[in-house]
Amino acid sequence: MKMTFYGQFVAGEDQEAIKPLLRRHQALGVGAVLDYSVEEDLSAAAAERQELASCTSAAEKEPGAERREKQYRAHRGFGDRRNGVISARTYFYADEAKCDQHMETFLHCIDASSGSSEDGFSAIKLTALGRPQFLLQFSEVLVKWRRFFHQMAAEQGQAGRAALEMKLEVEKLQEALANLGIVTKAESQHWFTGENLGVSGTVDLLDWNSLIDSRTKLSKLLLVPNMKSGQLEPLLSRFTEEEELQMKRMLQRMDILAKRATEKGVRLMVDAEQSYFQPAISRLTLEMQRRFNRDRAVIFNTYQCYLKEAYDNVTVDVELSRREGWHFGTKLVRGAYMEQERERAAQIGYEDPINPTYEKTNEMYHRCLDYILEEIKHSRKASVMVATHNEDTVKFTLRRMMELGIHPSEKKVCFGQLLGMCDQITFPLGQAGFPVYKYVPYGPVNEVLPYLSRRAQENRGFMERANRERDLLWREVKRRLLAGSLFSPNH
User: Fold this and answer.
1) Are 117 and 32 in contact (CB under 8 A)?
2) Is residue 427 a contact partner of residue 470, using CB atoms and an 8 Å limit?
3) How many angstroms separate the CA atoms of 37 and 11, rounded?
4) Strand partners of residue 300
5) Percentage, residues of the chain above pLDDT 70
6) Are 10 and 441 in contact (CB under 8 A)?
7) With helix as H, strand as E and coil as C, how does 315-327 read?
8) Element (H, E) at 414
9) pTM of the model
10) Are 170 and 203 in contact, with CB atoms under 8 Å apart?
11) What is the full DSSP assignment across 277-346?
């Protein structure tokens, strides 16, 4: 097994076993994003049972309870989140003790990154750290809150503008809130009397989002505007005491990991997940960035460029980092859940969140990347990992870095590929002095089998071609290095 798929896609069984590979890579200028890729080998039926149980609150089970929007509910047939997903590992909630185990695993991974890879990364997933019910609930709140802002903007004649260009006049907004019966003008006055909020007479999306911070706490029930009833109402009637504790523990685990990463000089990569979890994951990651990215980018958020809203998300978050003065850290990916996302949206009946074509996703990737590169040029307080196997995107990045005067030695732009794939991109970049990383899965053979089985599906016929391909790749690497032409127009 270790000589086949395991040896190709997994670095070794534990922290000691992976060190020789990490040292070899480091000698070639390639760093590591360590990813302990153990998955519980659940049957599809067991996975679905656990998912449905952990995504439904106690209040929702009561007779006559209000139900969440269908996109933000667990559904039979889509409980096993591994379906159609190849390159991402998946966690299912069992209990709090299991989440503590996952946290300990991530802590060991951070320690391993610190001890074996200079300036390395460690990858985490938030679904491993708590009950997914909270990610669903918080995602729905954030989406509804943002949607309400867009509805108000449309009423002020600003429909179709870019997210950051929408600015609501405070007077008109207060009148609209009063007319809807949500809050009187006098009561809403204190919403817009912060240090900066409303001083200009307008409120933009970042100002609007900040109201969630000032009016509520994550551990309290968040209020969302209901346009039909005209009331500001809680998303659910209440949390049980146990649910309240579970949410607090999830936030505590994130805090512990961020502190350990900071202490060890390791950067923490928060992986993106399904679109119905992602608004909450991004917001919680942003909260960590605000606290831990004051001096350098320690916490990295992940943006999926196959999402229609990717550019809006990137620009809004970059602008927040500008206003508050912290370092913006991001990994850009195309996305790992497309097939599953499309099928779920079609069957359950909500708008497909994914770009209509691969070409549109490529455009989105380059647009988001260019925005961040421009930010690096102007402020030097942003960092990006260009996580891609697409050679055209790598060429685009190298060209834009040269045009914008961003030198590889600044380490503001780095590249990332999966272990066992696209060595023809990774190693020439490393040898040429560009910061580049392999996403390095590791773990015991038997426990990474679920992950490997999906990689095997992705790479049918891979092993027949592997040796021949490796010889060809190394021949080409040596030829280009000797010729001094990396990624020349002819390739």
Assistant:
1) yes
2) no
3) 10
4) 269
5) 77
6) yes
7) HHHHHHHHHHCCC
8) strand 413-418
9) 0.84
10) yes
11) THHHHHHHHHHHHHHH-SSS--EEEEEETTBTTHHHHHHHHHHHHHHHT--EEEEEE--S-HHHHHHHHH
